[in-house]
Write a structure and sequence with these properties.
The chain is mostly helical. 68% of the residues lie in helices and 0% in strands. The longest helix has 21 residues, at 87-107.
Length: 131
């Protein structure tokens, strides 16, 4: 049996109407939870590096890179910067940022609860190590 062009078009239309096609990709809009987490990651990375905690700084840079990829094509300007002078102040900043990420994880309306939860856990671990 030979398939006609009309038959192929009708079949394609039927498949499309039946939902057998992939949904179109969407671009992430500027998500406030992800943006806040990104700015905090940049600030904490800089503060940790200044105090000589390169492993902690690298964790924050990794989080920042992940968040930047999730927010593309949006560009988020740098953070406010932290004035951290000692380990106790860094531990406090890590704890506060971890609490913010934890709250964002619980209340986010986007699909990024897992990412925010991982960031919150990492920041809590950093605060515990520094305390």
């Amino acid at each position: 049996m030979f398939t006609t062009r009309r038959g192929l078009l009708i079949g394609a239309a039927a498949l499309s109407a039946a939902g057998c096609t992939r949904p179109p990709a969407t671009i992430t809009t500027a998500d406030t939870d992800l943006t806040a987490a990104l700015r905090a990651a940049r600030d904490l990375s800089e503060a940790a590096e200044t105090l000589g905690y390169s492993d902690i700084a690298e964790d924050h840079r990794t989080h920042a890179a992940t968040l930047e990829r999730l927010l593309k094509p949006n560009v988020v300007e740098g953070g406010a910067g932290l004035d951290i002078g000692d380990d106790a102040a860094l531990a406090e900043a890590e704890s506060e940022a971890g609490d913010e990420a934890h709250q964002a994880c619980l209340t986010t309306e986007g699909d990024y609860a897992v990412v925010l939860g991982e960031i919150a856990a990492s920041r809590a671990a950093h605060a515990a190590v520094l305390a």
